[in-house]
Amino acid sequence: MRITEILALFMVLVPVSLVIVAMFGYDQGNGFVQASRFITMEPNVTSSSDDSSLVQRDQEQKDSVDMSLLGGLLVSGFKKESCLSRYQSYLYRKASPYKPSLHLLSKLRAYEELHKRCGPGTRQYTNAERLLKQKQTGEMESQGCKYVVWMSFSGLGNRIISIASVFLYAMLTDRVLLVEGGEQFADLFCEPFLDTTWLLPKDFTLASQFSGFGQNSAHCHGDMLKRKLINESSVSSLSHLYLHLAHDYNEHDKMFFCEEDQNLLKNVPWLIMRTNNFFAPSLFLISSFEEELGMMFPEKGTVFHHLGRYLFHPSNQVWGLITRYYQAYLAKADERIGLQIRVFDEKSGVSPRVTKQIISCVQNENLLPRLSKGEEQYKQPSEEELKLKSVLVTSLTTGYFEILKTMYWENPTVTRDVIGIHQPSHEGHQQTEKLMHNRKAWAEMYLLSLTDKLVISAWSTFGYVAQGLGGLRAWILYKQENQTNPNPPCGRAMSPDPCFHAPPYYDCKAKKGTDTGNVVPHVRHCEDISWGLKLV
């Protein structure tokens, strides 16, 4: 028994002694470290260093999510693999200096709920479409869902800026936007709204009649005004109206931008719209929209910048074109310069006057350096001095690209910068209905929007899209008149927003013509088209 007690006491004392030595040990040779080097961890309590690292990691994850959602402009919940650009675009673009207002974010969230409730496939949509049936009586209710349908029209740049305008109008009037475009449209763009679609169903009741819609159609708003067939009583029985807001619209079509006509249109369930314009500036001149638009866009010249980034996300096929080209030719540059060249006279070939104008612009504005002459051209720059500028040229032909590439290959620059000239494609002429042509066009617009500085051509909606998506104030190459070079060759844009090429010149209250570019300070005439309107 005595031996057993001694062994038991030994078994207890030895472990206790080891613990004491460990806590108050020595730091000699390979001995135990000093007790002061231990960090005592209380249950469920982290050290201050661990706590700060966790906070930092959480903040980094939050910042990453916030950046990918563009400051709350976008919502989460989409399957990432279905639209890679939605979650990856922020990795290729500098953060925008323009922040969306809280009121705009609130309007977008409210619109998303409306679209989910009233979009294709819902009972409300089915009931609303029944109103379009010829034998349908007026007893059928649309259950509060109203629609504006954008008809596919014009080139890709025009389509993009006009859809943004129609979407803005939809938000202002509590309508659901549906776009005609079919499979090609889905091939170019991701769906912008969660758990629903913005594509007009192929079997839409009026789809077969679209080709016949025009300014003399029975349900054309402008023609009905001309024939005095539209008023408060007659409009209540209409299931739909056709709105002709294309560049060739007449004075009666333009009455769409009057307060009185907006009051008539608000009760029509279906509005079918054909437009190739960015008509947002004229919406700011309608008094009933003025206050709402002011809260949505405190920075007036950012309408397309915000709505374009919200709506238009390249499909995975197009995103592949964008990212592969960016990584191959633009990623390693110290500075990226975009140069969009559009000469509307495609038969003229390479014009010496246009070439001179381009070079004068990029060199006078210090976008690209001048060429070096004399002894200094033989001096080799140090690594610190060496700067790579990548120039992305987009043009239907290769002529201007070849001139710039040869010029900067055969000659050094006064700044010793190395200039790389790159052009993704040269399609020869615009081919609006070809899928691969539109894929390349969309990819090049987006690539231009990723540059640090941008030069675009006057009148070109291709350039407007790039400028707006990038939030850039581009340098605009002025259109040549009477075969003479403009002086100066280019000028800086007042804002990133596109120009409305065909605005109305009419005072709805006074019922007479007026200069709509001098009504309010934030709607002015465009830099490149003297009669156009632009938000600034």
What would your notes on this structure say?
With 536 residues, the chain is of the alpha/beta class. It folds into two domains: 187 residues, no CATH class; 208 residues, Rossmann fold. It has 18 helices and twelve strands. The strands form three sheets. It has a six-stranded mixed beta sheet, sandwiched between helices. Strand 5, helix 15 and strand 6 form a beta-alpha-beta unit. Helix 6 packs across helix 18 and helix 14 crosses helix 17. The longest helix has 22 residues. The radius of gyration is 31 Å and the shape is globular.
Number of domains in the coordinates?
A: 2
| Residues in helix, % | 25-40%
- Major sheet: 6 strands, mixed
Which percent band covers the strand fraction?
5-15%
Transmembrane segments: 7-26
Keywords: Cell wall biogenesis/degradation, Glycoprotein, Glycosyltransferase, Golgi apparatus, Membrane, Transferase, Transmembrane, Transmembrane helix
GO molecular function, one term: galactoside 2-alpha-L-fucosyltransferase activity
Organism: Arabidopsis thaliana
Please give a handful of descriptors for the protein shown.
536 residues; Rossmann fold; six-stranded mixed sheet; four-stranded parallel sheet; 18 helices; 12 strands; globular; membrane; XG_FTase; transmembrane; EC 2.4.1.-; glycoprotein
Topology:
Elements: H1 2-23, H2 48-68, H3 84-88, H4 102-118, H5 123-130, E1 147-150, H6 156-173, E2 176-179, H7 182-188, H8 221-226, H9 232-235, E3 240-244, H10 259-265, E4 270-274, H11 280-283, H12 287-296, H13 303-311, H14 316-330, E5 335-340, H15 352-364, E6 388-394, H16 399-410, E7 418-422, H17 435-449, E8 453-457, H18 461-470, E9 475-477, E10 490-492, E11 523-525, E12 533-535
Parallel strand pairs: 1-2, 1-4, 3-4, 5-6, 5-8, 6-7, 8-9
Antiparallel strand pairs: 9-10, 11-12
Helix pairs in contact: 6-13, 6-18, 13-18, 14-17, 17-18
